[in-house]
Amino acid sequence: MAPPSPSPARRRYRPIGLALALAAGRLGALTVDELLNEPNLTPKRFANYFDDFAYEYSGEVQPPEQFLTTRRGDCDDYAILAGYVLQRKGYQTRLIHVRMVGRVAHAVCYVTQVHAYVDYNNRHYFINLQRCGGRIREIANTVADSFEANWTSASEFTYAYAENKKHFGSTVVKTDDPARDPDLIHP
Amino acid sequence: MKDHTISRVLAFFLLISVVMLVVAVEAVRNINRSVASSDWVNHTHAVILEAEGLLSSIRAGDGAMRTYVMTGDARDLTACRDALAQMAEHAEVAKALTRSEPAQGLQVVHLESLANQRADVVREILAARRLDNAPAVQKLLAADGGGDAIREIQRKVEKLKNEEMALLAERDTAAYAQAQTTRWTVWLGVTLDVLLLAGAAWLIRDDLAARRRAATVLQTANEQLDAKVRERTAELGAANALLSTENLERQWTNQALEHQLRYNQLIINSISDLVFVLTKATKISRVNPAAVHLIGLEAADLINQPLSRFVRLGDGTGDQTTPMIDPIVTALKEGRDLRDQPVILEDRRGRRTRGRFTLFPLRDRDKVVGGVVTVQVNRAKTETTP
After folding, report:
1. Which residues of B touch A174 (CB under 8 A)?
2. Domain boundaries in chain A?
3. Boundaries of every domain in chain B
4. Most exposed residue of B55, B63, B345, B359, measured as fewest CB within 10 angstroms of its CB?
């Protein structure tokens, strides 16, 4: 559940303060509210906030404040938070889980309007949005290519912080006929 | 002659390019097939992993449920719920993975059904425990044949794994065969290309050797030609030198002849006897100054005049008419001399002079072409016109 909204004055100066804080080397911890109240938050600007976050795998999805405070997390934490924030900023987002050979499944958040996904592995790069097509197979191919790996299946899923549970939707299998992909038959 | 080497070499290189293209296309197709085979191998591993994940999450959920029943710790409850969520995820993914394999797909559906039954029991126990309903928990646990259910799921998972392992072996064999085909294709293509390159190299080398031989032959021919030209030039030089010498000698001879001719002319001109040169028809062709002087006509007027107009054989005592047969003509025809014959000369005014006539025929290759007449004049016996 999101905390109450700040006053208009605070809202006005918040981006400046946020920018100063970022320029000064992250003086304070980033919060979900700050992200939600960023007036010009785009997927790229969102990704820019995470360039100094560290990677730490956990089996469970961290609460967003914990992820932002500790500045440590994994692809699930990042993709789910991106989906949560960007959806509230008017973007249409899709969470995609890609299972690759010999690797932990990787999650990304695809943003339909920009035809790209945000990936925790790209947080350090200037180009932190990866453009690709909107089909699950296309996203899985691009993600697997970034790992230089083969993928076996990829699923679209949803997640609610309150429920703390992933709900898997369409699953695409690499060896299946692409024309029979579930997201193509039932978009 | 048209040079076929370039076209042959080009044909070789075209063939090499075609072979390379075919090998590349075939290799890429084989690689694609190999990747597809590899994908199927990975797919099979993924099914096995998901089945094992399903089993382990059921076990984990069951263990967490029993711990929670004993401790009532919320973390155990969360762990149990996570395990059940993971179980559902594994079942979902396994179902998706076996969509295209009906036999395995049915097994996964059955497995999911068993897992869901087990999850329902676990959730029921968890719900009773959360309500601290110990009797209900005890009753549920007593009625639960958890071990049997899990063993049944394990058997199903093992069966699925065995079938997937068989598929894995089959797909691995296919991937191996594809890799072998790719190797053979590439090596065959490379060997063929090397052979074709060797052929092209041989062709080029052979052509170069032929060109070298032709150049050598041409050089030899040129040298021989040069030698002949030099030899012929030398011969021409020698002939030219000889001709020059001969010309010089001929010039000298001509000069000598001219000198002799002038000398003879001078002799003829200086003698007091009259000299007439006659044609075969006894017409005067040349005269000496003594004849001009005696006859009183210029040499030009005398030329082409018949000799008989001025000279008549005889001493003037007999018949003065012209004889029917001219003895001069007869002597010339017969090619004999007339020596010391009496003759009467008549000048332009009709005055007559006696003299002695001699005729020598002129021959050219045994053929009489004319004659030379000399008349020795007796000056004292010049007569006036009758």
Report:
1. 39, 42-43
2. 43-185
3. 5-207, 271-381
4. B63
Whether B293 has a pLDDT exceeding 80, the answer reads yes
The single-letter code of the amino acid at A31 is T
B347 to chain A, any CB pair closer than 8 A? The answer is no
Chain A residue at shortest CA distance from B44: A152
* B45 close contact with A: CB closer than 8 A: yes
In a mutational test of the A interface, the residue from B39, B40, B56, B164 whose CB has the highest number of chain A CBs within 10 Å is B39
Alpha helices in chain B (DSSP H): 5-71, 74-97, 102-130, 134-143, 146-270, 289-295, 299-302, 327-334
Q: For every residue of A67-91, which 3-state class applies, written as one string?
A: HHHHCEECHHHHHHHHHHHHHHCCC
User: What is the complex's ipTM, to 2 decimals?
Assistant: 0.75
Q: What is the C-alpha to C-alpha distance for residues A75 and A145, in angstroms, rounded to an integer?
A: 16
| B43, B82, B95: residue with CB nearest A175 | B43
Which residues in chain B touch residue A175, judged by CB atoms under 8 angstroms apart? 36, 39-40, 43, 100
CA distance, residue A132 to nearest chain B CA (Å)? 22
pLDDT digits (tens, 9 = 90+) for B315-331: 777 665 666 788 888 89
Each residue's pLDDT, cut to its tens digit, for chain A (187 residues) gives: 333 334 444 445 544 544 444 444 444 678 999 999 999 999 999 999 999 999 999 888 999 999 999 999 999 999 999 999 999 999 999 999 999 998 889 999 999 999 999 999 999 899 999 999 999 999 999 999 999 999 999 999 999 999 888 899 999 999 999 999 998 876 6
Domain B271-381, CATH:
3.30.450.20
